[in-house]
Amino acid sequence: MASGVHGGQGTGTDGLYENTLEPVGPAHWAPAGEHQLLKAANGLLVAALRGDIDLATATGLRLWLDSLLRLDAPGHVVDLRPVAFIDSTGLSVLLRFRGRVLGAERGFALLCDAGQRRLLHAHGTLHVLEPTATLAEALVRAAAGG
C-alpha cells in the first residue's frame, strides 16, 4: 500500500463506498384500486386501466394483472381508453400480460383510442397487440381466443 493512503479500496475508509443515502420511506405505487375490473355476461374479464402507466406504476400494475390470471375466465380484455399516459415500461407490462394470457390458452383483446393506436404503431407493437376500437369488438376477439 502506498505511503499516505489510508484504508484499502472497498473497505469503506477510502471514501469511495461511503453510504450517504438516507431512507425516504416506502415507494408509493398507484393502488390497484384505481383500475377497474368488470365481468362480461360471457365470463370475460375486462380490466379498465386508469391514470398513468409508466416506470413508477408498472410494478403495481404487473402484480395486479398477474392476480387476474388466477381468476377463472375464458379471456381478458384490457381497456386502455381511460389511461392518460403510457410509456415503454407500461407497454412491456401489457405485452407480458398478453403473453401470459395466451400461454394459459385464454383469449386476449386490447381496447384503445386513436391516439393510443398511434403510440402502438410508433412503438412497433400495433401488429402484435392488434387493438380494437370498441368494447363489442374486443369482447368478440377475446371470446374467440384472440
Automatic annotation (TrEMBL):
It comes from the Bacteria. Pfam families: STAS. PROSITE patterns: STAS. Residues 34-142 form the STAS domain. InterPro entries: STAS_dom, STAS_dom_sf. Transmembrane segments: none annotated. This is Anti-sigma factor antagonist. It comes from Streptomyces aquilus.
